[in-house]
Each structure stands twice: as C-alpha cells, then as structure tokens.
Specification:
Blueprint: E1 2-4, E2 10-12, H1 13-25, E3 32-41, E4 48-58, E5 63-72, H2 78-100, E6 109-113, H3 126-135, E7 139-141, H4 147-152
Parallel strand pairs: 3-6, 6-7
Antiparallel strand pairs: 1-2, 3-4, 4-5
Amino acid sequence: MNFNTPFGLKLNIEQTVSEIIRFMKDDEKRHYKIIIGSDSEAKEGLPVDFITAVVVHRVGNGGRYFWRRIELDKFHTLRDRIIQEVMFSLEAAQKVLASLKSFDAPHFDFEIHIDVGENGETKSMINEVVGMVRAYNFEARTKPNSYAASKVADRHV
C-alpha cells in the first residue's frame, strides 16, 4: 500500500506513518486527529477512480495528508461505489493503525470520514455505512463533517 504526498513523492505505509509521527512530534503539546476518508468518481465507459486520503490534523493549526489512487472496473450503482469507498478507508485504517503501533506516537484521536450526507442521493445509506465503520470500532463522520473524504480525497479524483 503506497501513498502519495501532495509534492509527488511516493511512500510505503511505514514511511507514511513515519512522516505522520514526525509531524506530530514537531509540536507534541497540540491535539491531533488522524483521519481516513475516500471518494470516487465514475465517468461513462471508464474505470471508477477511487482516492483514499490519510490526514493528520493538528487541530487549530493545519495538517498534512497523503493519498492513493485505485482504479476499478465499472460499478453499476452509487451504493456499490460508496460501500467500496468505505471498504478502502477501513483497509487503510487497519494498516495505518497497525503500523502506528510500532512507533512511539503522541496521543491522537482517530476517525473515518464517509462521503455521504443528509442532502442528496446518499442520505438513505447513512445508517448502513456508519454501521460498517462502527463495526470496526472506529468513529465515523458524515457530511458536512467528513472533510477528509469530501474535500481532501475529492481534490484528487
């Protein structure tokens, strides 16, 4: 599992987590959130473009992010696409957290951001996808509070 930086560097999971830890240790007195969110875009006749973002947020003072792209064949329904977004986020969350255990990380909160909300076609899916995330014992956020998915990952689709 490789991630890109906004500057074009490619990092494996250990390097990505090492950068997250370095960023957090630069100012250990701050409160941090590590957030994972995914977004996708489907264009007629092309594979679906899935982006997963890993964000380390120094609350009240910016942050850093890393992202990866996966292309999959067509998805026939929006529901299938949203479920796949959540699955990519959960997969990344498990790998990031497993790697974080091997480092001496400062305290942080952890969230999964889902690109669904009360307005639009995805409102009927909120309980289902939030339930998926909670089944893995993660905190879930939806629009308008799911910025890792709806803003960060969205920049790269």
